[in-house]
Write a sequence for this structure.
């Protein structure tokens, strides 16, 4: 019994000095970054996804998960995304979802470039044929057989190279370009275009866990079970560029710019309308650089605006009608009917239900300004020498043909009259000769 204190002390010392058990250390949960791409693939969304890859690599995340729903977009922006995915030092996962989403046209290349791809039930992928263009026109009809063959072969080779590198169905990848094939999620799985079906992001991460991927010539085992998702948001400039890349936005910005400049020209000195007009014009030019916009259509829009501005000063009516017609035509032809740098699975164009009412509203406003301007011209002049004609006042002293003084319009004036006028008599100004007024007496 006497030895018990010594034994207890020895055991306590051993426990304190012994290294902690490795099995007792908690393994930190995996961290996966999440980037959501909805809408067109353009300069803004491309910059965002490339930035997502870089930020995820620098943060040391276990993987990058991209939620995709796109009808397609600009080919060069798509190539930037594909280059970033293929050169990524961490696994890039793409989930086409939620149900109802699609990976259309340019979205096919983005999905093929991922290390692991899945789709939600009720989604589809495909239609990467470049002839679908922006209004469904075939390149052969627009630019000839050689142009059509060049564009088609380039897009097909692009899809084939991505599919081979990622071990996906090469034959289907080429068909999606050459034959505009589009398939639902279940068929995409059977064709080995994607790796599995996943109704949600959580299901995707659970199914992806433990899968082995080839990354930089080495085999990597995914750790995504119960992963902590860190959503990466686009920067303000990326979000701004993405929101501007809409034909309707470009059209409305051009008209707002014209509206502000028109108001400033009709009422010089207001400053604010002119300043807002210039800002809208700069934004419209910036947005048009991110879209396949015809230069000729922009010139037509500017001519239409110029005619409406001229209508304000001429008030002929004919110039206003011509301006409205040009605004409508400029809106119809604003988006290029075919641009080989864009791949989308449905037409991108300005709907007439936006173009016609907007042009008519702008024309109505310009017509109202023209009416107000014409009406103001018919009013008697209220400033300068002519503004004094017809004004009434009173004589400060006797006024005769040889001279005198009167008080008119809050001012003292030298005056003459055709007949003598007594002091304090009521007078009216008949004409102005330099700084002398010709006045007559009026009965009070």
């Amino acid at each position: 019994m006497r030895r018990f204190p010594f034994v207890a002390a020895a055991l306590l010392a051993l426990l304190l000095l012994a290294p902690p058990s490795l099995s007792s250390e908690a393994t930190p949960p995996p961290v996966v970054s999440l980037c959501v791409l909805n809408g067109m693939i353009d300069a803004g969304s491309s910059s965002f996804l490339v930035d997502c890859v870089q930020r995820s690599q620098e943060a040391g995340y276990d993987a990058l998960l991209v939620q995709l729903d796109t009808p397609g977009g600009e080919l060069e922006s798509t190539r930037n995304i594909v280059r970033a995915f293929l050169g990524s030092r961490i696994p890039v996962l793409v989930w086409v979802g939620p149900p109802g989403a699609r990976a259309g046209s340019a979205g096919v290349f983005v999905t093929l470039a991922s290390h692991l791809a899945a789709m939600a039930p009720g989604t589809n992928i495909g239609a990467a044929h470049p002839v679908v263009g922006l209004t469904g026109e075939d390149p052969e009809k627009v630019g000839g057989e050689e142009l059509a063959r060049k564009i088609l072969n380039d897009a097909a080779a692009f899809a084939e190279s991505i599919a081979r590198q990622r071990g996906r169905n090469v034959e289907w990848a080429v068909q999606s370009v050459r034959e505009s094939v589009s398939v639902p999620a279940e068929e995409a799985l059977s064709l080995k275009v994607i790796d599995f079906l996943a109704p949600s992001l959580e299901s995707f991460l659970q199914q992806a866990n433990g899968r082995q991927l080839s990354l930089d010539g080495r085999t990597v085992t995914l750790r995504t079970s119960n992963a902590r998702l860190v959503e990466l948001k686009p920067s303000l400039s990326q979000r701004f560029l993405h929101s501007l890349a809409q034909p309707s936005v470009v059209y409305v910005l051009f008209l707002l710019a014209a509206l502000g400049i028109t108001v400033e020209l009709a009422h010089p000195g207001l400053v604010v309308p002119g300043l807002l007009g210039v800002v809208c014009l700069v934004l419209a030019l910036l947005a048009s650089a991110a879209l396949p916009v015809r230069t000729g259509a922009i010139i037509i829009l500017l001519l239409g605006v110029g005619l409406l501005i001229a209508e304000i000063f001429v008030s002929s009516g004919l110039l206003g009608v011509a301006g409205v017609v040009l605004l409508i035509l400029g809106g119809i032809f604003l988006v290029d009917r075919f641009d080989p740098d864009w791949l989308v699975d449905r037409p991108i164009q300005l709907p007439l239900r936006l173009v016609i009412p907007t042009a008519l509203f702008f024309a109505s406003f310009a017509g109202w300004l023209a009416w107000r301007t014409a009406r103001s011209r018919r009013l008697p002049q209220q400033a300068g020498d002519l503004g004094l004609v017809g004004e009434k006042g009173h004589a400060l002293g006797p006024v005769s043909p040889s001279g005198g003084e009167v008080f008119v319009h809050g001012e003292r004036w030298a005056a003459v009259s055709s007949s003598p006028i007594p002091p304090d008599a009521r007078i009216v100004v008949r004409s102005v000769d330099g700084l002398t007024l010709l006045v007559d007496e009026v009965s009070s």
Remarks:
- The CA atoms of residues 257 and 282 lie 9 Å apart.
- The two ends are 134 Å apart (CA to CA).
- The chain is about 45% helix and 20% strand.
